[in-house]
Design a protein that fits this description.
Number of helices: 6
Shape: elongated
Low-confidence stretches: none
Distance between the termini: 10 Å
Structural class: mainly alpha
Number of strands: 3
Strand content: 5-15%
Helix content: 55-70%
Oligomer: single chain
Largest sheet: 3 strands, antiparallel
C-alpha cells in the first residue's frame, strides 16, 4: 500500500515539476513513478504491490460489470408494463471488519442501481441494505458476499 501512495505522491510531484496537471500527464507521472519504484522494489520491499494492484483492478472490473448488469435490470423493471417488485430492507452480515472495508462495501452497494446501503449496526457486524426487489434475499446476500465483499478482502488484506 505504501508503494501505491508513493506512486501517487510522485505523480503529483511530476505534475508540479512539469507545470501541467492534465490527466494524461498525471497518468504518465504515475506510470513513470510506478516503473521507478518497481526497479528498486528489492530495496523497498514492495513485492506485493503488483499483486494488490491487480486485485484492486479486479474489484473495479467487478464493480463496472455489476453496475452495467444492475442498470440493465432496473431499466427493464422501469419500462415493463407490470412491475412485480418487492422492495425492502434486509440485513447483510459483514465479514469485513475494518472501517475502510465497510465504507467501501457500503459505497459500492449504494452506487449499484437498485440497491442502497442504509446503515451499519453499532457492533459493525451487519449492514442494512435497501433493494428494489427483495424477492430472493438469500441470493442477493450471496451475490454481495461472493462478489464485492470477497474482492475487497482479497485486495486489502
Amino acid at each position: 500500500m505504501i508503494t501505491y501512495i508513493l506512486s501517487l505522491v510522485f505523480a503529483i510531484i511530476w505534475a508540479a515539476i512539469t507545470g501541467s496537471a492534465t490527466l494524461h500527464n498525471l497518468i504518465f507521472g504515475f506510470a513513470l513513478s510506478t516503473l521507478s519504484l518497481w526497479i528498486v522494489r528489492d530495496q523497498t520491499s514492495g513485492r506485493g504491490y503488483w499483486r494488490r494492484l491487480g486485485r484492486i483492478l479486479s474489484l473495479a472490473l467487478l464493480f463496472f460489470k455489476e453496475l452495467g448488469l444492475s442498470a440493465w435490470k432496473v431499466a427493464v423493471l422501469v419500462v415493463s408494463p407490470r412491475m412485480d417488485l418487492k422492495p425492502g430492507i434486509f440485513a447483510f452480515p459483514l465479514t469485513v471488519d475494518r472501517d475502510f472495508e465497510i465504507t467501501l462495501l457500503a459505497n459500492l452497494i449504494t452506487l449499484t442501481p437498485g440497491t442502497l446501503s442504509v446503515d451499519v449496526s453499532e457492533d459493525r457486524r451487519t449492514l442494512f441494505v435497501h433493494a428494489i426487489d427483495c424477492s430472493d434475499i438469500e441470493a442477493t446476500r450471496r451475490d454481495i458476499a461472493n462478489g464485492f465483499e470477497r474482492k475487497i478482502m482479497e485486495a486489502f488484506r
